[in-house]
Prior knowledge:
By secondary structure, the protein is of the alpha+beta class. The protein contains five helices and four strands; from the N terminus they run H-H-H-H-H-E-E-E-E.
Amino acid sequence: MMFALGLLALAALQQTTSTSATSDEKPNAEIVDTAQQFLVLVDHNRWDESYQATCSSFHKLNTAQVWAATSEKVRVPIGAMVSRTFVSQENLPAPPAGYEVVKFRTRFANKGEAIETVSLDREGDRWCVVGVTIG
């Protein structure tokens, strides 16, 4: 479970975003932007900064060192991020207060197309990442 929360994505400067959502509700720009900013940090192998963008619940399961080592192991082999397009944002009703789940369709240099999923939670006055996967 620790690694499932810690797996991540991407590595380049280009970024493409669309605003299509899978439901009738408009996506929350603050949540989507937070997810994108996190992924850009990961794109540039900025492990310490991306770790700081995660929630305290993530920190309880992962140290900065574990995050960096796992990120290097998972992220580097798939190559640079070529393009990223917003797919959807939805609320996942889970205790205690639910999570926001943002998905992007991303193309990588060595992997082709994948879906990146970033899960976020509200902590104090900010949104922070509680999990990220590349599938």
